[in-house]
Amino acid sequence: MTKYEYLAELERLLAALPEQERRDAMNYYEEYFVSAGPEKEAEAIRELGTPQQAAQKILEEAGVADAPAPEAPQAAPAAKKGLPAAAKVALAVAGALAAVVLLAVLLGGALFANIAPAQSSVQGIEQNDPSATATPQAPAVQSTAPPAASAESGAPATAQAPVSGQTVTGTAGEWQVTLGSGLYKFDLELGCGDLQVVLDPNAAQSTLLVQGLDQSQYQSREEDFGEIKVVLGSRARQQSDQRFTATLTVPDDGALQELDLSLNAGSITLPDLTLDELDVELNAGDVTAGNVTARNISVETNAGNFTAASLNGDEVSLETNAGSIEAAQVQPGRELEVSTHAGNVTVALTGTLADYNLEAEGRAGTLTYDGAVYSGLTNTFRLGSGPVHIETEVAAGQITVSFLG
């Protein structure tokens, strides 16, 4: 079971919860998987338990009772006094047979529910039977099916995506998702592909153009009004060679305030951006950014490379495992956190040494701070008394911090 199947099944099982409580619960479990990372996905599932176990715990804590069982059919009217004995026996036998049949049906249904495999959360657009009664279900991470060709003209038809406000047009090899206007937060998980983000002052709506990827590899969910989460491509190793390109075009009107990007392999190119939050998680590949200004900036790399012209934020966090992070200019307003396990981080800070206070910790790595080299640190040391706090941690890599003056 993948994390997407796990989350989809959990969301279905939490359908009885109020919308806000269900969303809070789902956010917790999604963040749990993000913190674990792709390499520990199976371990995270073992720690969380099955979706059924997790749902039962959440529902019990929320005080939500299980769905009521179907009512048993009413008993047949009692035989009137004076009914012949043979009729009484016949009624008794018929009642017993009915009870046996009912028990068999209930047991069969329960057995089927236990052994039937859960439906995949990646589904195409289904045609609803207007005569059928729909069963309310919690929203799940879904995908849009490739648009069918028109029987008359042969041109691709426009398909309505499962997320409100989205439409999909194009062909199997090149298709575009119209994400709508007023996009406030965009959360994108990219499998193995190349993404370019474009700010267009003439665009009225945000769009995602994809080439070289089957549309079944597109999943989306609207978290809230103006907040959309998209999974594009597969993180599975057997499909890691499926390279595709995508272009996210956003109106340059200041509506987009939160951008969360997760890249498994490939590349991401970011223009000059002004946001409230930028969060980049990089497993492998390259991310190149222009001048980024945001209240919170967080960059985390496993074995990939992140390069930025400048990072300006109240809080800036840079962390790498075995990759590299480099920023030609960093201007933290309040705090800068830099850590490396076995990678390299190189940043140049605005101002001088007197503007900062440093708290450094290390083991086998090396910290170069304003030209002074500190290696093999065994204890935390502090330096400076400026208003902006810098916290560094070096395990076995290297951090280089210089000042632009």
Characterization of this structure:
The protein is an alpha/beta fold and 405 residues long. It is built from 5 helices and 22 strands. It has helices at 3-13, 19-36, 41-48, 51-62, 85-115; strands spanning 142-143, 159-160, 167-170, 174-180, 185-200, 206-211, 218-224, 227-232, 244-251, 258-270, 273-274, 277-282, 286-301, 305-320, 324-340, 344-349, 356-362, 366-369, 372-375, 381-383, 388-394, 398-403. The chain has a 22-stranded mixed beta sheet that branches. Strand 7 (218-224) and strand 8 (227-232) form a beta hairpin. Helix 1 packs antiparallel against helix 2 (19-36) and helix 1 packs parallel to helix 4. The chain is globular and about 55 Å long.
The SS-based structural class is alpha/beta
Approximate strand percentage: 35-45%
pLDDT under 50 segments (min length 5)?
A: 67-164, 237-241
Could you estimate the helical fraction of the residues in percent? 10-25%
The rounded Rg comes to 28 Å
Q: State the helix count.
A: 5
- Give a count of the beta strands, DSSP E runs of length 2 or more: 22
Shape: globular
Largest sheet: 22 strands, mixed
Distance between the termini: 53 Å
Q: What string gives the helices and strands in order? A: HHHHHEEEEEEEEEEEEEEEEEEEEEE
Taking all residues together, what is the mean pLDDT? 77
